[in-house]
Amino acid sequence: MNHKVHLMEHPLIAHKITMLRSKDTCVKDFRHLVYEIALLMGYEATKDLPLRDFTVETPLMEAQGKTIAKKITIIPILRAGLGMVDGILDLIPSATVGHIGLYRDHETLKPVEYYCKMPPDITERQVIVVDPMLATGGSAAAAIDFIKQRGANNIKFVCLIAAPEGVKVLTEAHPDVEVYIACLDEKLNEKGYILPGLGDAGDRLFGTL
Ligand code: PRP
Ligand code: URA
């Protein structure tokens, strides 16, 4: 495995991913599980954030402490990525949130950006792109292309379930991006769905099945 690819090995994540996969998990529980797993993964994905010294006054005396030295932006890939934003925001409440939406043109099969709104100081920020599914890798690779075109140069990608095909496409297109995966699945089916996967993440999250 590429050293930029991080597979989560925490028992809580493994347990929650299994519950998420079940076809019997209702919309409400699905949404809450996505929130919880994103929070746990956010903890892992921020473990190398830079710190700088920071002095505070305790009620007794001065203490030398640390503060996070990098501003952070979370960018969900619409629409299913939205389900992962709150978990990471609960860890980093001062983070800003950009949005990127893509669709695949039926004739060219190329990803077309239909929405993109980024914070103006994106070049200075640690960007965390979130999307529950990395299937063919087309959406993630294209989204990160568009985000880089806006000036971002420090990007992590956090997903819940990935197919080996998608990991290859993403890491070859963006070798500089750190990729965090809760579970690496077997393969894609002929329609581009991850097997065993969890079905359509957006539909399960928003109840549009
Ligand atoms: C899903 C998922 C990813 C994409 C992954 O979104 O959330 O963005 O598919 O597939 P890929 O790796 O083959 O590109 P989808 O396009 O279904 O849109 P949605 O979030 O609006 O449901
Ligand atoms: N998008 C999803 O939501 N699920 C898959 O399995 C593949 C792409």
Give an account of the 3D structure.
The chain is 31% helix and 31% strand. Helix 2 crosses helix 3. The chain has helices spanning 11-21, 27-45, 85-91, 138-149, 164-173, 201-206; strands spanning 5-7, 51-57, 62-68, 72-78, 96-97, 99-104, 111-117, 126-130, 133-134, 155-162, 178-184, 187-188, 194-195. The strands form three sheets. Strands 1, 4, 5, 6, 7, 8, 9, 10 and 11 form a nine-stranded mixed sheet that branches. Strands 2-3 form a two-stranded antiparallel sheet. It is globular, with a radius of gyration of 18 Å. It is built from six helices and 13 strands. By secondary structure, it is of the alpha/beta class. The mean pLDDT is 96. The structure holds 1-O-pyrophosphono-5-O-phosphono-alpha-D-ribofuranose and uracil (URA).
Total count of strands = 13
- The CA-CA distance between the termini, in Å, is 34 Å
* Uncertain runs: none
Task: Specify the biggest β-sheet.
Answer: 9 strands, mixed
- Summed over residues and divided by their number, the pLDDT gives a mean of 96
Q: Figure out the total of helices.
A: 6
User: Roughly what percent helix?
Assistant: 25-40%
The share of residues in extended strands comes to 25-35%
Query: What is the subunit arrangement here?
Result: single chain
| Helix-and-strand structural type | alpha/beta
The shape, in one word, is: globular
Radius of gyration: 18 Å
Q: Give the SSE string.
A: EHHEEEHEEEEEHEHEEEH
Bound molecules: 1-O-pyrophosphono-5-O-phosphono-alpha-D-ribofuranose, uracil
